[in-house]
Design a protein that fits this description.
six-stranded mixed beta sheet, five-stranded antiparallel beta sheet, 22 helices, Serine Threonine Protein Phosphatase 5, Tetratricopeptide repeat, Arc Repressor Mutant, subunit A, globular, Rossmann fold, 523 residues
Length: 523
């Protein structure tokens, strides 16, 4: 069926959108959203209905839906202000309002829109991050072990499908490439994905080796490779452990790859998601030098798409960095971050968004109950995200829940053992151990943190407090001096005022007791 409206041609069978015989780059899910809205143009389509129709029941955030609606509008020369073709009906959903002409016979069009492989590549790669897990090769020499390789693919696919901003092709489609010599670029084009995960399984007696590698098919780059060796005892436990490890490892690699991709795009073609990715790149710069740029990029993203919860949540992350480093910002700016966080929690189920916003509620508003609730939901939705567990560790420390904090930090370290933010995981594990009164273990963990990031201010503060709790008289002078070099005006009364904003009374008293024993001045 061919559908025409305002100079555009939508060919449902060929899955092409064109204008004056020119192919328009549009991702697979964006295409599906457009087709569904056009076919149901006689009524308002609710958000839940659209999510179910296009994503088939997968957990997808409202910000993802919002970015796809924005992409639909851009593809048909519409925008959120004019809403000439795709109209948002407040608290109801969306409706396509253009004049449409349908042609049932697809053969009426003599010249196909799709003319070259290069155009096809652009069409498929235009969507949000997408991946397929190809069938793992069975290298055991025993066809009976095929079931284990297939089960491994199923488990890994299920694990990474919990990453809400990532489109994951179902195993049924991936398995069509079993036992076939494949061209990875061709496979990616046929499945409509940017990334492929392939691997192998080898079993010998009671040992098993599972290897995997992540490939960016747009340039052939190998983004990640790992090998897992284990005893073959409980098959399900082994599959769960490997799947969790793979999902946790490739998540950070995919984010880095997407940030690099966004950085290469011309400024004029940036959408809200690209701006959000650029903001992430900014906050990764050392010594907070990218904070203001990140805030500006988030503001631009929200101006384009007010429902972009990912950008909204990042505002709170930046303010939290500034707060802990003593960088001043106004009460209105803090209130804005809290408002954005609260709204995102109420409207979005993206685990990363929930984790960031829960942390914002805790550190800028002291709302520990709401923050813990948001983090518990986030870790349930995606138990394979090291960053989510890292935020959980932080919030539980602020709320004086040491056992939960220690467990969360340990899980983050397990999921991403070489994470660029691993020093933070170590800090919050040490923080939790200090709250639990396990001072010697806490000292060892804080020292590991400082080994990775020698000037990390919170860890230096923790080192001072632990010197006091452990009565390390020979070290106290050195660490108190380092702390006062960073903040010459630091006093116990000053820290009490600082900590009262985000620390529970029990957590705050543990810090103050350590500072007092270490010799930090009272006033």
């Amino acid at each position: 069926m061919s559908i025409s409206f305002e100079g555009f041609t939508l060919d449902v069978e060929r899955r092409e959108l064109g204008q004056k015989s020119q192919l328009i780059a549009i991702g697979p899910q964006v295409f599906d959203v457009l087709v569904y809205l056009v076919k149901n143009r006689d009524r308002v389509v609710g958000k839940d209905e659209l999510l179910d129709a296009v994503w088939g029941g997968r957990i997808v955030s409202l910000s993802t839906l919002g970015s796809h609606i924005s992409a639909v509008r851009r593809a048909v020369s519409d925008n959120g202000d004019e809403q000439r073709l795709v109209r948002t009906i407040a608290r109801k959903g969306f409706r396509f309002v253009g004049d449409v002409h349908e042609t049932r016979a697809a053969t009426e069009r003599a010249t196909p829109l799709l003319t070259t492989a290069t155009e096809h590549d652009r069409l498929e790669y235009a969507d949000k991050p997408s991946i397929a897990v190809l069938p793992f090769r069975n290298l055991s020499g025993d066809p009976q072990q095929e079931y284990f390789a297939d089960g491994m693919v199923e488990e890994i696919t299920t694990a990474i499908a919990r990453i809400p901003w990532l489109f994951v092709v179902a195993p049924a489609s991936s398995f069509t490439y079993r036992d076939k010599p494949v061209d990875l670029t061709q496979v990616a084009r046929e499945l409509g994905v940017r990334y492929l995960l392939e691997g192998s399984v080898r079993r010998a007696k009671n040992r098993v080796r599972i290897s995997g590698k992540l490939i960016d098919t747009t340039n052939g780059a190998h983004l990640w490779a790992e090998r897992f060796d284990a005893a073959f005892r409980n098959i399900f436990e082994l599959q769960d452990r490997v799947a969790s490890g793979v999902a946790g490892a490739i998540r950070s690699k995919l984010i880095s790859a997407e940030i690099s991709r966004a950085a290469r795009k011309p400024a004029a073609s940036l959408d809200a998601y690209d701006l959000y990715l650029r903001a992430i790149a900014e906050i990764r710069k050392p010594d907070l030098e990218g904070c203001e740029a990140a805030l500006s990029l988030c503001g631009q993203a929200l101006a384009i798409d007010p429902s972009c919860a990912s950008a909204a949540s990042l505002v709170g992350v930046v303010r939290a960095y500034q707060w802990t480093a003593g960088v001043p910002f106004t009460a209105d700016e803090a209130a804005e971050a809290l408002q954005l966080a609260q709204r995102a929690i109420e409207t979005d189920n993206d685990p990363d968004v929930l984790a960031r916003c829960g942390h914002t509620l805790a550190i800028l508003g002291g709302a520990h109950v709401a923050a813990v609730s948001a983090l518990e939901k986030a870790t349930t939705l995606n138990p394979n995200s090291a960053r989510v567990w890292g935020f959980s560790a932080a919030v539980n420390c602020y709320a004086n829940r040491p056992d939960a904090a220690i467990a969360a930090a340990e899980q983050a370290m397990r999921l991403s053992p070489v994470d660029p933010f691993g020093y933070q995981f170590k800090f919050f594990r040490g923080f939790g151990l200090m709250l639990a009164g396990r001072y010697q273990e806490a000292l060892e963990m804080i020292d590991r943190c400082l080994h990775e990031r020698p000037n990390f201010h919170p860890a230096i503060r923790a080192r001072v407090a632990l010197c006091g709790h452990l009565n390390l008289t020979e070290q106290m002078g050195k660490w108190v001096s380092r702390q006062l070099d960073i903040n010459p005006a630091m006093t116990i009364s000053g820290f009490a005022a600082f900590g009262a904003r985000h620390l529970s009374p029990g957590t705050l008293s543990r810090w103050i007791d350590g500072f007092r024993l270490a010799g930090i001045p009272e006033k």
